[in-house]
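Dear Dr. H.,

I hope your travels went smoothly. While you were away I took the liberty of generating a structure for the chain from your last submission, since the lab meeting agenda had it listed for discussion. I wanted you to have the full record in hand beforehand rather than looking at slides cold. The sequence, exactly as received, is reproduced here:
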Amino acid sequence: ASLNSDTGAYKLLEGKPREEMAMKGIALQSVMMGAVNSLYTAVRKCADGSADAPQYVDTAWALFASEKGPIALGEKRCPQFNTCTTASAAGKSSVNVRLLAAFKKAQSLATTRGSSCWELRSTVEGIVGLMYVPVLQGMMREAYEVDPVVHGRVGGDDGFVEVCEGWAFTRAVLPRIAACS
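The corresponding predicted structure, in token form, is as follows:
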């Protein structure tokens, strides 16, 4: 649905809540799915002996580290969850620092191919799990901000914006949560 139309999923939302729901939904759902898909494509390409497997690792990092991507969310949430570390090329969020190291390892494994493809798959599974940490933090932060007891102290927008943002975070992690045993 168009963001300006009076039909579709956004028909009851106006202004900032509508914008937050759409933008966070795009950033979190589309970008995360694209990054995860690229990582698993790298694993398949590696197993097939294809020389372009590293390109898919690069694409996944580019998506994750984009300006509005989850890497920015990790930077925003690390002070709130006490997960900041010494600043590095990936920022100050400890999860982003760990992710950059894991992506570099995946890049190396995808380049060497052969028997390293099994290790690449294991590394990719670790990366995917870490990529969802900032999204889960965002979901928990928005839930905290709409708690009636807390809302007055944290000074959020109006409560409804936080609900919309929280919904976007939740929709991004639901498939991951559903896959848990």
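Two observations you may find useful: The CA atoms of residues 74 and 134 lie 5 Å apart. Strands lie at 84-88, 91-93.

With kind regards,
E. W.
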